[in-house]
Design brief:
Elements lengths: L6 H21 L6 H8 L3 H7 L4 H18 L11 H18 L4 H8 L5 H27 L9 H22 L3 H14 L3
Helix pairs in contact: 1-2, 1-4, 4-6, 4-7, 5-9, 7-8, 8-9
Length: 197
């Protein structure tokens, strides 16, 4: 049964989680020790183990959930209403704006490249996120076509795969180079593929 935290406790746990997630995005799992997390977040070891009793493994699973939720929430509210060319362009702009805001440290890559390798529970969280995201984009392409827009010959499920690959691929190159152009062009390719460019 999940513990109920006070408002202060929930805020402390979130502070540790956000700090640890940022460290992981910057350093990878190998570069994130419990000591560094405590130092960076201004927490004690006893606090860390209070909120994450199983230590590193539990913390990494919590980071995976946190980052997985962010991948979907970062695309809201656009991802729920991609039924027009204008809404698809707004989604593209929102994705670009989010990467401008967070910089070169991508939550998707942190999940896929780093956290999915820390154990079966974290891997399951990553797979679930990919599945949820794919389902949402499949539904989005279906809504666009049902509204009479987009390319009628494009299979929604296949288009969703293109979206995920474009965002993740463009974000990976951006993360490696600091150059937005590949992410922007990948998203432009998505808009052309679904027929709203």
């Amino acid at each position: 049964m999940a513990r109920v935290l006070t408002a202060k406790g929930a805020a402390t746990r979130r502070r540790i989680l956000e700090g640890a997630a940022e460290l992981l995005r910057r350093n990878g799992t190998a570069g994130v020790s419990l000591e560094l997390i405590c130092q960076t977040t201004g927490s004690s070891k006893s606090q860390l183990f209070h909120y994450f009793p199983d230590g590193r493994a539990e913390l990494f699973c919590a980071i995976a959930r946190f980052e997985a939720d962010r991948v979907i929430s970062d695309q809201q509210p656009h991802i729920e209403d991609l039924s027009t060319a204008e809404s698809w362009r707004a989604w593209r702009a929102a994705v670009i704006a989010r990467y401008v805001e967070i910089g070169r440290y991508c939550p998707v890559n942190a999940l896929v490249v780093e956290l999915s390798r820390t154990g079966p529970e974290a891997e399951g969280i990553v797979l679930d996120m990919q599945s949820r995201w794919h389902t949402l984009m499949t539904q989005a392409v279906g809504r666009l076509q049902a509204a009479g827009g987009g390319c009628r010959h494009v299979e929604p499920e296949a288009a969703a795969s293109v979206v995920l690959a474009a965002v993740q691929g463009g974000a990976s190159i951006y993360q490696a180079t600091g150059d937005f152009v590949h992410l922007e062009r990948a998203l432009d390719g998505v808009l052309s593929y679904v027929g709203v460019a």
